[in-house]
UniProtKB/TrEMBL annotation:
Phylogenetic lineage: Eukaryota, Viridiplantae, Chlorophyta, core chlorophytes, Trebouxiophyceae
GO biological-process terms attached to the record: DNA-templated transcription
Protein name: Uncharacterized protein
Originating organism: Coccomyxa viridis
A GO term, aspect molecular function: DNA binding
Regions crossing the membrane: none
Source species, domain of life: Eukaryota
InterPro entries listed in its UniProt record: RNA_pol_su_RPB10 (IPR023580), RPABC5/Rpb10 (IPR000268)
Length: 70
């Protein structure tokens, strides 16, 4: 499994899924207290061992649009 799919799975695991207008997105759990705990994205990146800022940036800014194009 590639890192992107693992990252997606972990973020989903640590987030609260929501759907608006047919589009799925994840909300940070209310009890997370953003200043006290990491966001789901940060937890997933740490768990995958992605410590370099360039690797983290690529994962955080990636747009998974291949399914929309095909």
């Amino acid at each position: 499994m590639n890192k992107w799919r693992q990252y997606e799975a972990l973020v989903t695991k640590y987030s609260v899924p929501q759907t608006v207008a047919g589009r799925r997105f994840n909300l940070v759990k209310p009890e997370a207290g953003l200043l006290k705990e990491q966001t789901p994205e940060a937890r997933a990146l740490d768990e995958l061992g992605l410590q370099s800022i360039c690797c983290r940036r690529m994962m955080l800014t990636h747009q998974d649009i291949l399914d929309d194009v095909l």
